[in-house]
């Protein structure tokens, strides 16, 4: 039962993230949306891996690796957004409306 | 085994050395790293040729607990192509991106990024674990995005961010498929997955992974990020991005569809993939025809050239995998990957020489440049022969193999794609060629060192030579192929 709650929460996070990705044009919000989707997937992954007898260590190892990957991608993305904001004065991509 | 490990680790060490060493020692260290990795790549190729596919279980742990690496003919061949492109790019970047020409930012950043990209590509070529492949893909994306943004111009940063958005969306789709696969089967090893019992969620997992990889490969209609990103980077970086980066996600696609889950392929999904490929050939070709800048023409041509490779799905996959023509179609697709890699790198490096010589890549400014820079003009023309698929180039071998398979399997409609695509390529490459080889204008470009001019020429010549000597790579590519397609024509 517990695991189902985790899996459903993960799915809800993915849904929220996808909504943010589509509905928002401010790049920082989009980066947060990506992180939400990633976290949702990892939560689902953890719940899926905990089924059966005992704990499966592989999902935990993979989730930690995945978090590191997501962190470095976010760092690069934030760096690029800062560079974009410095050079063009806006944190949105050029052809998209800047209404946050 | 030592060859495989050093092939993976050497570029990583060289990248760290290029960051840590003082500026005087940076270039020699990077070039030494390039040289050593090339040696490791040749060593690995000889080992694969002599003893068959090389398999390593990291730390002695076998799958499903551990991670397996396996260099088969396909992975090692892509490794050699990558090594050739990397050497050429390094030799061109030595002139083009030197700190005193291109500024300290590019002069510092390019070398570690290039070497990290190489390490990540090599890891993807041999990884047998779907999650390992995900990490490799992400490393490739991060270095590729940084290479796009390396000039620091506003347009380049916007192109890099757009690229990153698409690439991250693709990664997450792929990751979602991986998670579902693990939830159903408890393993991510490609060989173990091939022996699994099919679960109901497998089609969804395969679909998610495929969608993610298509975004990363820039297949039509997910190609919109590619041309601005590839043309915003400095030319040697564009060569890496266009010639190598899409091949990694394409390779994973082949591994999943032909090795991990071949039984899930249905005629409809295979035709859908090939149709998208055919649309990419047409759409990329038409847009290339409309561009007025050389780098954009070459970038749109990448969209078109990648499309051909997707014909492999109906011609060599699913039920057709056991047929005699499957080996030809499969090898043709790999030949297209290799030929496109060499020829496209040559084209971008030639474009880099033109930009260095006249400060522009507008077709109108390039008229008559072949008179001042004949070697570069010849290199561009040779690379065009490969992209057009004219004999005796490797592009011809690729299209010939795919068209033969299309006729042999009775799916003759797919043979129209290489034929029509060749005509479109002739149209869009005629414009830059006629500008470069125009007789009318006398230009006085800046002098370009002889050693730099030979680099694209050698690459373009190799893309033609691969077609002339196609029997050796043909045999090499069969090493470690998935069994159900082992019997060739």
Care to describe what's here?
The complex is a heterodimer of chains A (100) and B (489). In chain A, 77% of the residues lie in helices and 0% in strands. Chain A has helices spanning 2-23, 27-49, 57-88. With 100 residues, chain A is mainly α. The model of chain A has no long low-confidence stretch (mean pLDDT 87). Chain B is mainly alpha-helical. Chain B has a two-stranded antiparallel ribbon with strand order 1-2. At the A-B interface, helix 2 and helix 3 of A face helix 6 and helix 7 of B.
User: Which percent band covers the strand fraction of chain A?
Assistant: under 5%
**Mean model confidence by pLDDT of chain B:** 91
Shape of chain B: globular
Biggest interface between protein chains, with counts per chain? Answer: A-B, 33 and 31 residues
Uncertain stretches of 5 or more adjacent residues of chain A: none
Question: Main traits of this protein?
Answer:
heterodimer, A: mainly alpha, Helix Hairpins, 3 helices, elongated, B: 489 residues, mainly alpha, two-stranded antiparallel sheet, 2 strands, 74% helix, globular
Outline of this structure?
The complex is a heterodimer of chains A (100) and B (489). Chain A is an all-alpha fold and 100 residues long. Chain A has three helices and no strands.
Q: What's the arrangement of secondary structure elements?
A:
The complex is a heterodimer of chains A (100) and B (489).
Chain A: H1 2-23, H2 27-49, H3 57-88
Chain B: H1 2-20, H2 23-51, E1 54-57, E2 68-71, H3 73-96, H4 99-102, H5 104-126, H6 130-148, H7 154-185, H8 190-194, H9 202-217, H10 226-232, H11 235-243, H12 245-260, H13 267-290, H14 294-309, H15 312-316, H16 326-358, H17 369-372, H18 374-388, H19 394-408, H20 416-436, H21 450-468, H22 471-477
Antiparallel strand pairs in B: 1-2
Helix pairs in contact in B: 1-2, 1-5, 2-3, 2-5, 3-5, 3-11, 3-16, 3-21, 5-6, 6-7, 6-12, 7-9, 7-10, 9-12, 10-11, 10-14, 11-16, 13-14, 13-20, 14-16, 14-20, 16-18, 16-19, 16-21, 18-20, 18-21, 19-21
